[in-house]
Design goal:
Layout lengths: L4 E3 L5 E3 L2 E2 H8 L3 E5 H18 L4 E6 L6 H9 L3 E4 L2 H9 L7 E3 L6 H9 L4 E4 L2 H14 L3 E8 L21 E2 L4 H6 L8 E7 L10 H21 L5 E3 L17 H19 L5 E4 L3 H4 L3 E13 L3 E6 L8 H5 L5 E3 L12 E4 L8 E6 L9 E5 L20 E5 L2 E6 L4 H4 L6
Parallel strand pairs: 4-20, 5-6, 5-13, 6-7, 7-8, 8-9, 9-10, 9-11, 11-12, 12-13, 15-17
Antiparallel strand pairs: 1-2, 2-3, 4-14, 14-15, 14-19, 16-19, 17-18, 20-21
Helix pairs in contact: 2-9, 5-6, 8-9
Length: 432
């Protein structure tokens, strides 16, 4: 189990020393839970490491697509790091939360005109430009607003990060960024002088997600700093900022072996410093974008067990009151999770294997497959661990399901930060 989880005298699972079974009774299920202390600890690990190894010349950005809400933006803001946002909705939420716009970086491969306008009108610090059309649109908006806009150029560095195909973003066949291998990146740099209201600040790359190996990140720094050298030599532009992205893996199940994040930062920083000296480059301001690794381990999801279906020698199903509407990651990626019965947490898991099935009208509506849990019975509370990232943020209203609430535990207390949707909420955009 995760370090913030435990078992109390009643034999129930706890998170942050709060009884999960009591929380299920109080708020109902499905229910997302987040441990605020874990989020803070993970942020500070990154912040302290980047300050240490880059001599305080760097910035951690929380990749807020992992989990976006007013609560998380306010918390991240108080911790002194920045955020990246990838949509008008995420930006709007950050602004409503009072986030420091000097620490907002705006990403996305197909930002609309209105989104770019919104970002510039609200003085977003940096816009990460993904393609040539966006350069033109952004410059036009900047001219109309009589503003100068700082930009980073997103580069696809051609690196295979050995992760799921759907979360690889740095190889040549990617919808993201300017391709390095075909000369596109340098060609675009050569056109920047015509965009008079855009200020070249530097480069960005992101090679994928749920990565356990340091070497792809080291190789990314090799590629990006070589590009920075070529840009300086050929066009005279200085790369002031280098964003090396995120994608650091977390432990979902036994066998997952994530690297120590400080160790990663140290090893990459050693390579960055070596290459800057070798290439005669001024050390750029280093940016990194952890998301899943900040909030993923902080969360669990609770469900109520409904029906069980035993097919001898085939499969044992245990159905719960949620599913792919609140956690689509199994359906998308075949993602694995550790589960247990929260009200039987002190008991040993059975030797039988179970598939946790959702309530939706899809044969592939699973949350976990072939797992060991305590013997499930109707009314039990099933906990799925490490669900802080890409569960709430990817939730849907499939089958007109209402999205679950989010409850934060902190200092032994619980706090509702996102209420459960109602059936009336589902009708908000429907003509009656």
């Amino acid at each position: 189990m995760l370090q913030n989880l435990g078992v109390n005298a009643s034999g129930n699972l706890t998170i942050g020393n709060v009884d999960t079974v009591s929380l299920a009774k109080k708020y109902g299920t499905p229910l997302y839970l987040l441990d605020e202390q874990v989020i803070c600890d993970n942020v500070m690990q990154y912040k302290n490491a980047i300050d240490k190894y880059y001599n305080k010349k760097g910035l951690v950005l929380y990749a807020s697509k992992a989990f976006s809400s007013v609560y998380i933006y306010r918390l991240i803001n108080t911790l002194g790091i920045g955020i990246d946002v990838v949509s008008g909705g995420e930006l709007y939420t950050a602004l409503k939360a009072g986030f420091d716009t000097s620490k907002i970086y705006f990403h996305g491969n197909n930002k609309s005109y209105d989104e770019l306008l919104m970002a510039m009108q609200n003085d977003v610090e940096v816009i990460v430009v993904d393609n040539e059309n966006e350069l033109s649109r952004l410059n036009s908006i900047a001219v109309n607003l009589n503003k100068k806009q700082k930009i980073l150029l997103r580069i696809t560095p051609g690196i295979d990060a050995h992760t799921h195909d759907f979360v690889k973003t740095g190889n040549i066949d990617s919808k993201f960024g300017f391709t390095l291998e075909n000369g596109d990146a340098l060609r675009i740099i050569g056109t920047l002088s015509k965009y008079e209201n855009l200020i070249y600040e530097g480069l960005h790359c992101h090679i994928g997600s749920q990565i356990f190996d340091v070497m792809p990140f080291v190789e990314a720094s090799n590629v990006m700093l070589k590009l920075a050298k070529d840009i300086k030599d050929e066009f005279g532009y200085v790369t002031k900022k280098l964003n090396l992205g995120g994608g650091f893996g977390i432990k979902y199940v036994e066998g997952d072996d994530p690297i120590e994040y400080e160790s990663y930062i140290e090893k990459v920083s050693q390579n960055v410093k070596k290459l800057c000296k070798e290439f005669n480059l001024e050390m750029p301001f280093i940016i990194m974008e952890p998301g899943r690794s900040i909030i993923g381990p902080a969360g669990i999801t609770l469900y109520t067990v409904g029906n069980t279906k035993i097919i001898p020698n085939i499969r044992n199903y245990v159905s719960v009151d949620g599913g792919m509407s609140d956690n689509p990651r199994f359906a998308l990626y075949g993602s694995k999770y550790e589960c247990l019965i929260a009200n039987k947490a002190s008991e040993n898991k059975t030797t039988d294997v179970y598939t946790v099935a959702g309530k939706h009208c899809e044969s592939g509506d699973f949350i976990a497959e072939n797992i060991h849990i305590q013997t499930p019975e109707y009314g039990d509370i099933l906990a799925v661990l490490a669900t802080g990232a890409y569960n709430y943020s990817m939730a849907s209203n499939y089958n007109m399901a209402t999205k679950p609430p989010v409850v934060v535990v902190s200092n032994g207390e619980d706090k509702l930060v996102i209420r459960r949707e109602t059936f009336e909420d589902l009708l908000n955009s429907t003509e009656i």
